[in-house]
C-alpha cells in the first residue's frame, strides 16, 4: 500500500479493525502497511479507540508483550440494544406471522442482512469476555444468524444438518428427541467442520421446547467440544418442559393462539445479560 496521510490511515485502519474483530493485530503490521513509524500508529490507534468507545462501536484492547498488539472487540450500548429489541418485538407482533403449531414466520427478518448484523453484534457484545472458537447452528433458518454472530466473534461457523451430504465427507450422526413433536430425529455434522476441544456457541432462530438445541449440545460431546452458551432469536414461553436451561434470547413469544390469531411477543433476557456482561 502506498504511504497515506493520517486522515487516510485513520479511515483504512478503522475499516481494517472493523473487518477483523477479536483478532490481535500487531503494530508492526500497521507500520509496514502504511509505511509509518510505530509511534504514529500508536497515536492513530488512540484516536480510533476514543471514537469506538464514544460511539459505542466497541473496545480497542491493547495486548502487551512481543506477540501483542491491538484487538477490536465489538460492543453495543444499552440504548442501541433496547432499540434493536424494540424493532424486533414490533416486527414480530403481527398476527399474519402465526404458523400452524404455534411457530412464527421469520424468513423476512432472517433474510435481512442489516438486521442480522445488528443481532450478531449484540450477541458478540454479551459474549465479549468468553473464549469462543466456533458458532454452531442447524440448517437452514439458523444459518444467517450464525454467520452474523460468527463474523463479530471472528470465528467460523459449523452447520448441523438433518441429512447426510457426500460433499462434506465423513459425518458424525446422533439421534435426538424433538421436544415439540416427541419424535426421534437424526442430526449430522461433518468431522472436519469442528476441531476437537473447541469452545462453541450455539444459535438458532426459534426455540420451543429446545429439543434441537439439546441435540446440538449432545453432538458437541461426540467432538469432545465444550458448550460456551446458547442464543436464540425467539423463545416460546408456552412450553411445559424446557430441554435446555441457560440461554440468551432476544425476544419471547408469551402468547399465541392459532385459531383466534392472537400473538404477544415481548423482549427476551439478553438485555439483562448485557447489563451484567
From TrEMBL:
This protein's UniProt keywords: DNA-binding, Transcription, Transcription regulation
Limits of the Phosphoribosyltransferase domain: 109-254
SUPFAM superfamilies to which the protein is assigned, alphabetical: PRTase-like (SSF53271), Winged helix' DNA-binding domain (SSF46785)
Pfam family, one: Pribosyltran
Key word Transcription present: yes
PANTHER family: HYPOXANTHINE/GUANINE PHOSPHORIBOSYLTRANSFERASE, PUR OPERON REPRESSOR
Designated name of the protein: Pur operon repressor
Organism placement in taxonomy: Bacteria, Bacillati, Bacillota, Bacilli, Bacillales
